[in-house]
Amino acid sequence: MKVLVTGAKGFVGKNLCAALKNIKDGKDRRFPDLAIEDVYEYDIDTDPALLDTFCKDAGFVFNLAGVNRPKETSEFMEGNFGFASTLLDTLKKHKNTCPVMLSSSQQASLTGRFGNSEYGRSKKAGEDLFLEYSKETGAVVHVYRFPNLFGKWCRPNYNSAVATFCNAFANDLPYTVNDPSVELELLYIDDLVDEMIAILQGKGHKCEFNGLDVEPAKTGRYRYCPITHKVTLGEIVELLKSFAEQPKTLMIDQWSTSVATRQSSCEHGSALAAPSVPEIPNGSFAKKLYSTYLSYLPKEKAAFPLKMNVDERGSFTELIHTVQSGQVSINISKPCITKGQHWHNTKWEQFIVVKGHGLIQQRCMADPSAPVLEWEVSGDKIQAVHMLPGYTHNIINLSETEDLVTVMYCNEVFDPARPDTFFEKV
Length: 426
What we know:
By secondary structure, this protein is of the alpha/beta class. Helices cover 28% and strands 27% of the residues. Strands 2-1-3-4-5-10-8-9 form an eight-stranded mixed sheet, with helices on both faces. Helix 2 (49-57) packs across helix 3, helix 3 (74-93) packs parallel to helix 4 (118-137) and helix 5 (161-170) runs parallel beside helix 7 (233-249). The radius of gyration is 28 Å and the shape is elongated.
């Protein structure tokens, strides 16, 4: 199949083309049976003559071309309806009735705050044109009304508040929130692209619209993505504030507000209950927003220093903190050095030697006659060793020349007011 993407250099176009090329090149293992021969990319600066060739050969068309922020409102109809007419006329010229997808907008509903939208009217005209084209030619038409979109490669200070705020926090720029209580329905770019790939496979979701409300329907005229998130501007900003603090706190799951744990808050038109564990579950808005935020970081923020606790024995550096699941650290022991020599009541750890040659020892504090447990460990054969509660333990670098490097996981972040750590030689 040859796939034509118009508006290929836009936000959605860039992400869709990247996904299609991964499938074409066999890099995306999720789609072993989806054969894409070529991806035709068309945009405003493409030679118009190529549209003729592309429309002749295409086996599927994604029409993402459109105008969002023209200088004159009259350009809405020209850019959104006009090009759609040209595209469909070119397909008809070549008697190509391949499936065609149209990216429309919630504003095409022409209801509520969108009731007097020139942009919405141009999108509605495009929808009607495509639906009529389907009746006339028998071609399958997929019309999507997108809510607000967000994700990597979205242009800030254009038509996405999320992109604007992410860019502002990532680059220490000023921002303005006029009303924190304003709620947005947001669709993440990866969820949208997955839905668009699904229609290439004859799948996807159909619906009708009752104003802005999606009404799933197997025979619906429209398409929709079932995973969206309803979030206020205030919630977005608060999450971004905590993201920006992560290099200082090392916390990767401190975003334990309702929005952080909220899974797809609009799925088939109904809300899902938040999970009981206040972390960032797969599919949550906070996880998607954090990935989006990271994509705007400048080079100088993509790397940040960690506090190394250095002494004559080596060093100990905390890498990651979590609210619920403890911390991860890296320990470096110089040749012939012994570290540890302490025990815990409830706290437990895992030691994972990744470089060097060492010995881990543990002894039960409740039984003086119990034998010392020993594990010889090496970076050549990586394994995880539990430090058992109630057992004093150590780790010894057996090499006389090489550092011993150990990744250490602890089930709780160190609390100096309640360390649960007691010195005792093994």
